[in-house]
Amino acid sequence: MNVLVLNAGSSSLKFQVIATDLDRMKEHRDERLCRGEVEGIGGEATVTFQAGKEAKRRFAAALGDIPSALDYLARLIASEQSGVPEIRSKADIHAVGHRVVHGGERFAESALIDDKVLQGIEACIDLAPLHNPDNIKGILAVRELLGQDTPQVAVFDTAFHQTIPDRAFFYAIPYDLYGRYRIRRYGFHGTSHRYVAFRYRTLRGLTREQTSIITLHLGNGCSAAAIKEGKSVDTSMGMTPLEGLVMGTRSGDLDPAIVSLIATKEGMSPSEVDTLLNTQSGLLGISGLTNDMRQLLAKLKEPADRQARLAVGIFCYRARKYIGAYLAAMDGADAVVFTGGIGENSPDIRARICEGMEWAGLKIDAAKNQQMIGREGLISTDDSRLLAYAIPTDEELLIARDTVRVILGEPHPS
Ligand code: ADP
After folding, report:
1. Ligand 1 pocket test: which of 192, 218, 345 has the largest number of ligand atoms within 8 Å of its C-beta?
2. Model-level pTM greater than 0.90?
């Protein structure tokens, strides 16, 4: 089955086409036929396209909205020159899997999209006003282009965390507010946490029930998850992706009184403060330089930039605090798993986060840590009681696999 995986944003459309089916999944023979991104939708857009392992190509096109971007993509993929011989027409796209940001309390699993599911995603717009509307536009654009008969599946960022118990997902604010607005912790990056937990247990030959780990997704957005016996029991992102770890441009945890203080002192509206905390804070805010961890690490070479050192220091300290908190929350864990752009590629940050955690039995092996850049494997010493792994995430693969499983009515193995 050729599955088109889509992640529709306000002005971008990320895509991959993955050929997979139940046999291929079992044998890990899923094949990525092409991938890329359309950026700048709404004006002169840039399309990045890569067929298989070929070089990336770039195209420019005036694409006013998501439907026209999708139409352009479908033509590009099916064209003679695309380098994707498996797809010669729209009919060769057999199913579509969508990354949907918020599934609220309605969706604890991926779902085959029909009108009822679409209404459910619409009902979650209040919880993710910036994301769910674009995800819906993506789904409707596919219906328009490929017709009602092409099955579409929604894979929710929040779904994996629906197993979190109420004591962990409630905020200590008046109970009525939960009843009226569903204000609670939902958590995000669920597909990524779920994928690396699945890879971890595959690497170690464990069952899901034997999988008790802390996963750290450290990318531009960052989150931690406590996964006990295969289920998420706590996570650091909350009602929105703003809570928790320090991120590229997001503050993470913060005294809520700061919001009204900034608003009063700076003459800002609540939503302007919200934007400041989402887009001008985190690594960028503290360093005053960049949200790119590579550039910050380069600034640590003597003479070190003080704010860059502070940004990296706060980032790692906050991550270490969450590891400690989750060890307590889940009665101990067997491993810490690093993923995301920073977690997969930066031995330096992994070592800084785990520094001084020998008390918990966690010892990083410097040589193994250095080797594990963009590849999966153990990075702790042989005598470490708490293991550490680096595992590259692959949310698109999990979305493609869920799409096939949901269409065929197969239960999720992870
Ligand atoms: P997103 O959350 O947007 O998917 P990614 O997971 O791609 O983001 O992660 C982006 C982050 O990864 C950036 O901050 C980038 O600096 C960081 N990163 C990528 N490679 C490295 C590296 N070798 N060392 C440190 N940071 C890295």
Report:
1. 345
2. yes
Query: CB under 8 Å to 12, separation ≥6 — which residues?
Result: 37, 38, 39, 40, 41
Q: Are 339 and 215 spatial neighbours (Cβ–Cβ below 8 Å)?
A: yes
Burial of 44 (0-12, 13-18, 19+ CB in 10 A): exposed
What torsion, rounded to 10 degrees, do the Cα atoms 128, 131, 136, 142 define? Answer: -160
- What burial class does residue 303 get, using C-beta atoms within 10 Å of its C-beta: 0-12 exposed, 13-18 middle, 19+ buried? exposed
DSSP state of 15: E
Please, which residues bridge with residue 154 across strands?
98, 111
Query: Is residue 154 helix, strand or coil?
Result: strand
Atom of ligand 1 nearest to the CA of 393: 6
By CB atoms closer than 10 A (0-12, 13-18, 19+), residue 271 is exposed
Question: Does residue 230 line the site of ligand 1, with CB under 6 A?
Answer: no
Tokens of 242: 């703003």
- Residue 212 one-letter amino acid: S
Average pLDDT over residues 82-101: 96
Answer yes or no: is the C-beta of 220 below 6 A from any ligand 1 atom.
yes
| Whether residue 247 has its Cβ less than 6 Å from ligand 1 | no
How far away, in angstroms, is 245 Cα from ligand 1 center?
A: 15
pLDDT in tens, 338-382: 999 999 999 999 999 999 999 999 999 999 999 999 999 999 999
Q: Which residue has the tokens 């010493």?
A: 381
Q: Is 341 in the pocket of ligand 1 (CB under 6 A)?
A: yes
Q: Which amino acid is at 125?
A: I
Q: Which residues are catalytic?
A: 157
Contacts of 152 (CB under 8 A, 6+ apart): 95, 96, 97, 98, 112, 113, 139, 142, 143
Q: How far is the CA of 341 from the centre of ligand 1 (A)?
A: 3
User: Mutate which of 189, 220, 222 to test ligand 1's pocket (most atoms within 8 Å of Cβ)?
Assistant: 220
